[in-house]
Amino acid sequence: MKSELDALGVVKKFGGLVALKGVNISVVPSTITMLIGPNGSGKTTLINVISGIYKPDEGKVLLRGKDITGLPPHEVYSLGLVRTFQIPSPFLRLTVLENLMVVAKNQLGEKPISAVFRRRRWMREEEELEEKAFRVMELLHLERLWNRRASELSGGQMKLLEIGRALMSDPSIILMDEPVAGVNPKLAYDIMEYITNVRKELGISFLIVEHRLDIVLDYVDYVYAMHKGEIIARGPPEEVISNPSVVRSYLGG
To answer: β-strand 32-36 against 66-67: which pairing, if any?
Structure first.
């Protein structure tokens, strides 16, 4: 089976510090893959390289076989690879619905002259975007909050809105940096259930970095464990979490 995403031999250095030492990972289409490891193991650096924030010193990043190594984040985004952050940053004064609609790609309203002369098409597009936004809200159980300002949402609801904004761009893969960090356990489990439903219904792949292993492991298909810039284990969740090297890395060995 072809991969949705591949990082091949990725090396990243910061002066004399080698943060990534020839990392290789793959994400299979329509799966949830998890990246684990203690703080400082290189997880966020790898996500930054994949999403175009950092350019690797060596190695390649492939998206559905296309070389995207070193492309800037906006180009990576336009190709279908979208990233969410640990701390969501929606437009606080906009409603949930408005936050979703504003991030859709290639809107006619972004081109004022075209919008003026193609008013009917623009209005039809706005109606279609609104319908799409409500479908996304239903997937994430946010529909009852559609007219609530983002500033009025709880931390967990903000996380869901961040996922919704990613979905509005029609991604093929979403990179998620600690999607349930700081969220109460009940909503954390709900968030993972919603991510699983999105994967099933839309066929989107996920690469998740998360420390709350007790919550997330039950929902993922495959796990990579990192330590000191290297992949030290890979495989099904139950195998990786019991791997002696992984246990030692979390205990400081």
So the answer is: unpaired
Tokens of 154: 């709880």
Residue 71 CA to residue 75 CA, distance in Å, equals 6
CA atoms within 13 A on the CB side of 249: 23
Record the pTM: 0.88
Contact 195, 103 (CB under 8 A): no
Helices 155-167 and 119-139: crossing angle in degrees, nearest 10, is 130
pLDDT tens for 112-133 read 545 454 556 656 778 889 999 9
Per-residue pLDDT tens digits for 22-58? 999 999 999 999 999 999 999 999 999 999 999 999 9
User: Distances in Å between the alpha carbon of 174 and those of 146, 204, 223, 253?
Assistant: 23, 7, 16, 32
Other beta carbons less than 10 A from residue 207's beta carbon: 28
